[in-house]
Every structure is written in structure tokens, then in C-alpha cells.
Amino acid sequence: MNHPVPRLGRRSFVLGAAGAATLPLVTLPRFAHAAEFNYKYGSELPLTHPQVIRAKEACEAVRKDTGGRVDIEMFPAGALGSITDMISQVRSGALQMLNVATASLTTFDPKANLSIPYAFKDYAAVWAAMDGELGAYSRRVVSRFGIHVFDSMWDHGFRQMTTRTKAITSPEDLQGFKIRVALVPMYVSLFKALGAAPTAINFSELYTSLQTRVVDGQENSLALIDSARFYEVQQYVSVTNHIWEGYVTSVNDATWKRLPANLQDVVQQRFREATLRQRQDMAELSGTLQAQLQTKGMKFNNVEPAPFREVLSKAGFYKEWQQKFGPEVWTILEKYTGALT
């Protein structure tokens, strides 16, 4: 079934109430001395990405509402290393906080990310799952690896395919096609099953890899295609909506446990509010991003998903991942997606 690109409106990041409750200040006076808790917060996403913008606002709100006791400094655009490096850092405690796609955490356990290609029909199904039982299961999995995950997820959007030389209109167009994928086993498995030649490359190296033609295409959300300026090195956008991706705010578990409970409440609440606003940002952006990217030279085409899903089924893709997830998780997943196998 088709997953229409979310229709998002103007790029105004003015989002009135996100429906989140307000918390009282933990410490009313402002302190002149240094913060008691200083955290670095890494992200691979560009400075202008909606997630980074809203996360920075959350960091500022936390400092204000804790009276300066908690100071979180944002380091976007891979300033602290590749996502692989930063995951290692946050596990060891060298980095305190990290904005990360759940898919990037599947090197520990495939059940860290439970978003399956061509599974969710729309955003109502996505948020029911991710704010519900499916998201809670994923967080429990990640917590076993020394990482505390906040319970509200950032929207990275449905992923689309971009190419340099041709539009993707059917699975046949992917035969032998050199496409960059994230360092995520499911994404590599997906494109192998579709007959492509997937190459796993860190996001920090992606623009250069496209520019030098190490790969001829990539797949990401429209917001990232725009903010990462891929329109400079890619010509076609095929609206495939092949998978929805979410990011989470993660914290080194030992670091989180050292933070007093009242301060934990403030941090979690402010980031929960930020994620709700960012979801709304993405909803508003979707309606303008296609037109915006077209003015920058990109050509769009809509793609019927049924042939792609049929190829995946025949290749045994869904059965493979059903076995990797196990019957308990697959049952929970299909509560939100309907039958996949």
C-alpha cells in the first residue's frame, strides 16, 4: 500500500502548544558558578535540521528551568565523530548524550529498531506504534546496552530514494544499482533483496561519496536531503516511502542515574516537548519541501510500492526478519501494521 509523503506546510518553526504539560522550575535563582552537571549532546544531523533546532531549544530550556544546574551543549553535524564513534562514546560515558536513529542501534540487537520496510501505512500508525507497545519494547532492548532512551521519539520521516542518473520507478531500476545505505543490517538486507548493490557508508562521508561517484544514489527523508544539500550532487527524487525512521535522545545510563530524580524529570519533560514540536515541524515542512527541492533542480516521481513489497516477499525478506525478531515482537508489530507475511 502507498505511503504518501507527509504533507507538511511552511518552514516556520513556530508551533504553539505541543500539548505538553509545564513543569515548575527546579531551582528558582540563577547561579553564577559552573553547572553541576555538564553534558555533551552529539548528533550526526546538520545544524539546520529540525531535530537539531528543537534539541538546542530543549537544552536551553533545561538550563533555564534547572537554574543552571544542568548544562547540555549540542554538537551537531558529526562534530564529535561518525555515528558509529558516538554510539561507542555514549556507551562508555565519554559522551553523555546522543541523538541517534534507532536503526543505528541494531548492531547490538535487531530489535532495537522495529520499523519494517513498507509496513506503516501512515503517521497515525507510526505514532500509535512508537508511542505505544512497540516503542516501549525497543527501549527495553536498548537499555540492556548501557543506554537510557527517552520515551518520546523524533520524526526523521519516510525515506525516499535519490539518484544521479535516472529515476527509480520499479524494482527493475534497482538491479545492480550502487546505492548508499546507513550502517544498518536491515537496510543492507532490504536493498540486497531488491537486487541493488548497497554500500554502507557513514553519513558524515555521504556527500563526498555522492560527489565522487563512489555511489550513484542514496535514500533519506526529504528534510535531510534538503538540509544536507544533496540537491547539489543528485538529480532525481523517487518518492518510494520505503521505510519510516525515528531518532531517539539517548543518555549514558550511569550518567543518567547520577542525575537527581527531580532534574531527570525536567530534562525528560523538556525533551518530550521538543520532540512533539519537531514532529509538528516535519508535518508542516512536508508540503513545501518537494516544491523547494524542485526549485533547486531536483526532479520528482511517485512510486507504487506494491511491486517492491512483492519482490521483498518473494525474496523471503519478511520471513527473515520475522525469524530475527521472534514471534513475540512480530505479534506486537503486526498489531499496528497488519499481516506482513
TrEMBL record:
Residues forming coiled coils: none
Entry-linked InterPro entries: DctP_fam, TAT_signal, TRAP_DctP, TRAP_DctP_sf
Location(s), subcellular: Cell envelope
Primary subcellular site in the record, as a coarse category: other
Matching Pfam families: DctP
Signal peptide: 1-34
Annotated keywords: Signal, Transport
Presence of the UniProt keyword Transport in the record: yes
The family this protein is said to belong to: Belongs to the bacterial solute-binding protein 7 family.
NCBIfam families: dctP, TRAP_S1
Name of this protein: TRAP transporter substrate-binding protein
